[in-house]
Amino acid sequence: QKEVEQDPGPLSVPEGAIVSLNCTYSNSAFQYFMWYRQYSRKGPELLMYTYSSGNKEDGRFTAQVDKSSKYISLFIRDSQPSDSATYLCAMSTNAGKSTFGDGTTLTVKP
Amino acid sequence: DAGITQSPRYKITETGRQVTLMCHQTWSHSYMFWYRQDLGHGLRLIYYSAAADITDKGEVPDGYVVSRSKTENFPLTLESATRSQTSVYFCASSPGVRSNEQFFGPGTRLTVL
After folding, report:
1. What is the per-residue DSSP string for A23-81?
2. pLDDT in tens, A39-49
3. Which residues of A touch B (CB under 8 A)?
4. Is B85:B31 a contact under the CB 8 Å cutoff?
5. CA-CA to A82 of 20 to 30 Å: which in A12, A15, B1, B71?
6. Does residue B95 sit at the A interface (CB-CB below 8 Å)?
7. What is the Rg, in whole angstroms, of the alpha carbon atoms belonging to chain A?
8. Which residues of B touch A90 (CB under 8 A)?
9. Is B100 within 8 Å of A44 when comparing Cβ atoms?
10. B100 falls in which pLDDT band (50, 70, 90)?
11. Runs of H (alpha helix) within chain B
12. In this structure, how many other beta carbons lie within 10 angstroms of the beta carbon of residue B38?
C-alpha cells in the first residue's frame, strides 16, 4: 500500500463549480502538507502549503488538513477554465524530501 | 537566468547508450531531487541530495547514477539506457530549512528507442 493515496479522477466540472480534491496518508510523522498544480507539459508548482492540522485559505483555494483522520483536501471555489490542470498532493516529515500522490486531473468546462 | 533549468529539454537516444541530464539552480538551495513521471505512476523519486557530495537513493534508483560536486548542479546519468527509462524527468530543488517547498524545473522528455 502506498504511503499517500490520491483520488485518481479525472474530474470534469462546469465553470463556477466547487471542486474538492482529496488525499489520504498512512505515515503519522508527516507534518508538512502541500498541493502542487501542474499544467500540461510543465513542471509542478506549489499552490498551497500547510504545517500540521487546520485550514489555510488563499483566494479561491482552501487547503484543509485533518491529522486525526490522516486526510487532506483542497477546495477550489468558483472554478475557472484556467484551473484545468493536474493537482498533486505532497507530504513530508522534516527530512527535506516529500512523498507525492499520483495526481488528479481536473478539467473545468466553460 | 535565475531559477532552475534543465537540459536538454528533449532527447532521443538508443538502447545501451549513456545519457546525462543536466540540472542547474541559482538559489543555492541545499536539497536537489530527480523524479521521473510516467502515466499511472505520478512522480517517482530517483535520487536526492541534501548538500554537495551527499546523495541518497529514492524509490526507483536502479540504472541511474548521480553526482553533486557543486551545490548548484545535480546531473543524472543513465549508464546504459533501456526502453523502460523512456519518461519525463523533473529536477527540483528545496531550501530544506523551515520549508519543504520544492521548485521544479521544466522537465526533460527522454525517449529511448
Report:
1. EEE--TT--EEEEEEE-TTS--EEEEEEESSEEEEETTEEEEEETTTTEEEEEESS--G
2. 999 999 999 98
3. 6, 32, 34, 41-46, 49, 88, 90, 92, 94, 96-98, 100-103
4. no
5. B1
6. no
7. 13
8. 102
9. no
10. confident
11. none
12. 13
pLDDT in tens, A3-57: 999 998 899 999 999 999 999 999 999 999 999 999 999 999 999 988 888 899 9
* Cell numbers linked to A32: 508538512
| CA dihedral sign of residues A52, A55, A56, A61 | positive
The cell numbers describing A85, all together, are 490542470
Beta-sheet pairing, A4-6 with A45-51 = unpaired
Å between B79 CA and nearest CA of chain A:
25
Instruction: Give me A26's grid cell.
Output: 498512512
> Which residue bears the cell 521548485?
B103
**Contact status, residue A90 vs residue A96, Cβ threshold 8 Å:** no
Q: CA gyration radius for chain B?
A: 13
Q: Would you say A84 and A104 are in contact if contact means Cβ atoms under 8 Å apart?
A: no
Cell numbers describing residue B16: 545501451
Across the interface, of B41, B42, B104, the residue whose CB is closest to A43 is B104
Question: Which of B102, B103, B104 to mutate against chain A (most A CBs within 10 Å)?
Answer: B102
